[in-house]
Write a structure and sequence with these properties.
Helix content: 25-40%
CATH superfamily of the domain at 111-251: Vaccinia Virus protein VP39
Strand order of the largest sheet: 3-2-1-4-5-7-6
Structural class: alpha/beta
Number of helices: 9
Oligomer: single chain
Strand content: 15-25%
Order of helices and strands: HHHHHEHEHEHEHEEE
CATH class of the domain at 111-251: Alpha Beta
Shape: globular
CATH architecture of the domain at 111-251: 3-Layer(aba) Sandwich
Largest sheet: 7 strands, mixed
CATH topology of the domain at 111-251: Rossmann fold
Distance between the termini: 31 Å
Amino acid sequence: MDLVQCAPDRPAALHGARKLDPAFDRPRRQQEGLSGAVVPRERGESLGPLFDAFPALLERRATDQERAQFERYADLLLLWNRTHNLTGLRTTASIGKGLFLDSLLFRSMLPRGPGLRMVDIGAGAGIPGIPLRIVDPSIVLTLVESKRKPVSFLLSLVRELDLGDVGVCHGRAEDVTTQYPDLVGQFDIALSRAAGNLPRLLPAAMRYLRTGGVFIASGPPSGGKPPSPGMQWRRVNYKTLGISRLFTFAEKPS
């Protein structure tokens, strides 16, 4: 296992990092003009529907900085997707709706207050953690991802969006806390959008949480019922957006 920049409150710290193969960072170098690549945004594509949903989701309008960060995020994801296959979504509009807006649905489940310490397990292309961090810069975010290509993308994304306090950890969720026990019990929130096997993921997620911290996963677990007595379902409804979503929720007991 190899961890990179796995210290959100100490952005300069590198825990056991080893230099990534330059080939994995090629899309970023293309973006900077080293090979003449351009971002493949389709004509007429925009994130307008995402920003139009802000009043319903956040009770405010998107700021200029948020607009710029989300647009840059979409551009980078489209560019990296050419070689890394990070998502099956291939247009700006589908990314805005299927990834960014979907991520912001988690926000209604989060405790209120600034400075939440959050870990996104199986972060992939940064979903849902990065969109949540964009709309709330006070969040102290750590991204955990087991596959190397998404990790390379996440490191580039953090640089490009100037999110210097976001940590990126390369490894399986259970291995990260074993190798770096200082992460155990340090987080208020653990998130997972592609939850997979919840009975296996839940114990690993709980290791990251402080007492009273919560684990939130999108969608009900497979099998149609919560996998443990401590888990429950909660539904989020946004009638004006025509959205209804079910989340799995669990609190770490004392």
